Amino acid sequence: MLRSRSSLAMSKINAACVIIGDEVLNGKIVDTNSKFFAKYCYDQGIRLNEIVTIGDEESQIVETLQRLRKNHQFIVTSGGIGPTHDDITYESVAKSFNLVTRVDEECKRQMQRLSKPEARLDTAALKDFYRMATLPHGPQVKNYYISDDLWVPICSIDHKVYVLPGIPQLFTRMLKEFTPTLRKIYGLTADKHQYVRFFIRTALTESQISGYLRNLQEEANKISREIKIGSYPHFGLGFNTVSILGTKDHQAFLESLNARTIKELNGEPISAEDEESISNAFKA
Predict the structure, then answer these.
(1) What is the SS3 assignment for 208-255?
(2) Which CDD domains did the record assign (predicted)?
């Protein structure tokens, strides 16, 4: 049964993302899941507070989750749920909640239906294959199968930690398809808690605009701590960008800040798409 969190009267859901894998830390692969998750949280009106990248080390996974659980209601993990010896996420997540793991029969049935492992794997390989169905077990565990053509579930513990694959195609697809369920769990609606953001481009330097932005943030804090004023330098391009971020329930105030900032900084509005393109154009 889904539990609505709207009754908790939380103005915001605090989220965290845990990227697990030695291959990220040693530079073998580039993490794109955390970037997707950040945009995902923004679109859902969820406050993403922290992104952590850690290795395939049980104690590190356990300690990280136990720390994050104190102040976050929505935590996703990415990676470490394959069949090899270094895929220890399920066991480590279970340990962080003082749970055991065991082969989940529903997951095993899904595997058999879609992959037919008994017909193609020897005994040793089959044992490793079913490691991927060895999930945390307990009354607070719920596995969500988001599509008929995927046997891997989103494993949820206490509707707080959600274990997802590290493969970007699966991570993004599963989160997208899980969205209606997620919104029910947390009581999210397309209402006043959704984010609104304005970008302004100015030729003034950050030193020239810092005083104005500081005062603007202090003014905004009196209205809501959800309103964030930021600045982003674009080295060598001759301009900087100012960001004004808040929630829809303060849209009129945000629009007034935007209009004033354009005037005060001799700026011009820039779309979110253009700002993202400029910010991500640099190649190392």
Answers:
(1) HHHHHHHHHHHHHHCCCCCCEEEEEEECCCCEEEEEEEEEHHHHHHHH
(2) cinA (cd00885)
